Amino acid sequence: MTRAYQHKPLGTASSIRVLDLLPSLNQQAPIRCNIRHVELGSSDARYEALSYVWGARKGTVPITCDGQDLLVTPNCVAALIRLRRSFRKRTLWIDAICIDQGTDAAATAERNKQVAMMGELYRSAQGVIVWLGPGNEELTPRVFKYLKILSLFKYWSMIDAPRIIRRMGKLVKPYMVSMAWPDGPGVPSKPRRRGTGPAFTNMIETLGSEWFSRIWTMQETITYGKCTVMCGTSTMEWSKFTAGMRDAGASHHSNANAQLLYLRGRLADEILYPAEAEAEADYKSMHDVQLLKAMCKLQCSIPHDKIYGLFAILRPRGLHLPDPDYNRPLVEVLEETTRAYVQYKKKLDILRITLPPDEASGLPSWIPNWLSGQAVGQLTCSDITGTAIVCFGEFPSHISSCRGALISTTGSTPHTPGKLIVKGKRVGSIKIISAGMYVGAQLVKELSHFLDFIPVCREWCRMIASVESYPTGEDPVLAGLRAITNHHGFFPNGKLIDREHLLLWHNSLLENQRTPEDGGSDQRTGGIGSRSDHRHTAEENLKNAEITQIVQSYVNYKANYAFFRLDTGYFGSAFRTSYEDDDIYLLAGLDVPCVLRRRSDEFRFVALAHIQGVMRGGLWPESEDDLEELTLI
C-alpha cells in the first residue's frame, strides 16, 4: 500500500514549494508529480500559478507525489489533466498541494506565513492560469470564439489607426461575430439594450463558474506575468476575456460575477501600477468602497478568509494589517481590518457598506456585516443596506454634511477593543416615525407589489401636511417631499422630480382618503393638483394619473425605509431599522448623517440617513471644538 504524502518543512521564511507535473502521452493516465523547495524570487522559482476553486474542503482523489499518495479534489485533478504536457514537465504552484493543509500547529504556522506571501507568489509567477472547470463541450468553444472576436475589435477601436481603418472595423465586425457564433448574441448594441436573449444568457452562464464568486480569486489575477483563462479545452488571455465580456455587455448584467469583472481589472491595475493610480485618487477611493461591498458577496470556506483572502489587495492599498493568523478570534481580525481602513482613509466610509451586525452577534455596530450581511444590490426597493438611496453613490461626492472634515485618529492612539471614538454634532432625535412592512426585492415599477405601501405613503403625506414651518425657511411640504424623494441618482438623467409633480402626488394621496366632512382645500399646497370640485378633461386626468404613477414608482425605492420628523423640526428618511428616540448625528469623516442608538453613554450605529436641509454642511460648526466626542460600540 502506497504511503500518504507528508510535506517536508520549509527551510526559510521565503521558501515555497513548486510542483513539477510529469508528462504523459496518455491523457487519462494517473497524475504523477514531484515537489521541490525553492526560494521565492530566485532563478529557480520559475513557475506558473494555478487559480482555481477547490470544490471541496478536503481532497478525495489520489495523485502520486514523489512516489506517495496525495489526496486532491476532483476539480484539481481535472485541471492537472488539462495542463499536463505530452513530452515536457510543467512547473506549477497550486495552493492545495504546495501549502501543507494539515491541522497541526506546524501546518497552521506555515499556512499563516504562506498566505501572507500569496500576493507576491502570484505577482512573481511567469504566468497565472485561471481554471474555470470542464465547461460545456458544445457551448464553451462558441463563447470563447465570440469573446475573442469582440476583444479583437475592441482593441482595433482603441488603437491610433486612420479613421478609414476604424470604420472598416465597424463594418466587418457584425459579419465576423455572426461567423464566430451564428445563433449567438450578435453585435452588442447600446448598453441599455444589452443583456437580452437566450444566447446572451448562455454566455453569462460561463460566468456561473464558482471561480468568479470565490474571494481568493480576486487577488490571483494580479500578476506581472501572462494570465490565461481555461475552460475545458478552450483557452484565451484573461485581458481579452474580460474585454470581450465587457464589450458584450456583461458588466451591465444583474449577474454579480459579471459586475465584478470591471472591479477585478481596476484593482489589478492600481496595485501593479501605483503611480498611475495615485493620479486618479477619486476612482481609487470608489474602488475601495466597491471592494468592501464585494466582500459580502464573495464566498469562502473559512470565515477568516473574508480578510485573509484579500490580504494581497488590502495591504498594497495602504491598510496596515498584521500578518494572517488563523488562531486569532475572528472578531479581532474583523475589527483590526475595519480600524485599519478608518485610519488609512481618515473617513467613516466603512459605515456605507452594510447594515450593522445584529446586536446579539457580539460584533461592534461599526464593523460591516461581511459574514451574513448584504451589500447594496440592484436598483430595486430591496436596498437592504440602507446606503444606496441616502448616499451619493460610490464615487466621492463634493456634497458633504460634514464639509469634508476627516476623522481625527492615528495608528498610535490607544483604543479599547470593540469601541471607536469619533466626533460629531447632534441634529436631533426622532420624534415621529412611520414605516411599512418589509417589501423585499421587487422592481419599483411593478406597482401591484406595493399596494400595502400606498397607505404608508399617505401617512407620510399627513405628517408633512401637519407642519406649518421648516427650520431652513423652505416650504415645509416641499422639504418633506424632498426628504422622501432624495435619491437623485435613480431619476432619468439624474434630475430631481419637478416640484409640481411632487405636489400632485402628495395632493392625490391626501384627496383619496379625504371624507366629505373634511372638505375644503389645503391652502398651503397652492391648490396644485386635482381637486374634488375640479373638472379636468379626460386628457388632463390621464396625464395627471401618469405623473402620479411615475412619482410613486420612485417613491417605491423607499418602501423599506422609514420617514420621520425630528424634535428639531427636520424631516428625514433612513432604513426601517430606525426607531423613535434614536438620535441623528453628523460625524466627522462621514458625508451623510447617520442614526445612532444610545446605550448609556455610548452609541450603536443604526443606519445612514438623509435629513433635508443639512446634507450640504449647513449645520457643521466652524470649529471642531464645538463637536461632541462619541463612542461607537
The number of strands is 16
What overall geometry do the principal axes of the alpha carbons give? globular
Structural class computed from helices and strand pairing: alpha+beta
Helix amount: 25-40%
Number of helices: 19
Report the mean per-residue pLDDT as an integer.
85
Query: What is the percentage of strand-forming residues?
Result: 15-25%
Main sheet summary: 9 strands, mixed
Low-confidence stretches: 190-195, 376-382, 514-533
Q: What distance separates the N and C termini?
A: 58 Å
Radius of gyration: 29 Å
- Numbering strands along the chain, what is their spatial order in the largest sheet? 5-4-2-1-6-3-7-8-9
Describe the overall structure.
With 633 residues, the chain is α+β, with helices and mostly antiparallel strands. The protein is 33% helix and 16% strand. The protein has 19 helices and 16 strands. It has a 9-stranded mixed beta sheet. A 6-stranded antiparallel barrel has the order 10-11-12-15-14-13.
Throw out a few tags for this protein.
33% helix, alpha+beta, 19 helices, 633 residues, single chain
Short synopsis of the structure:
With 633 residues, the chain is of the alpha+beta class.
Task: Compile the SSE list and pairings.
Elements: E1 15-21, E2 32-39, E3 48-51, E4 61-65, E5 68-72, H1 74-83, E6 90-93, H2 95-98, H3 105-116, H4 118-124, E7 127-131, H5 139-158, H6 163-180, H7 198-205, H8 217-220, E8 226-231, E9 234-237, H9 238-247, H10 256-272, H11 274-278, H12 281-297, H13 305-308, H14 311-314, H15 330-345, E10 420-435, H16 454-465, H17 476-484, H18 499-512, H19 538-555, E11 561-566, E12 571-575, E13 583-587, E14 594-599, E15 602-611, E16 628-632
Parallel strand pairs: 2-4, 3-6, 3-7, 7-8
Antiparallel strand pairs: 1-2, 1-6, 4-5, 8-9, 10-11, 10-13, 10-16, 11-12, 12-15, 13-14, 14-15
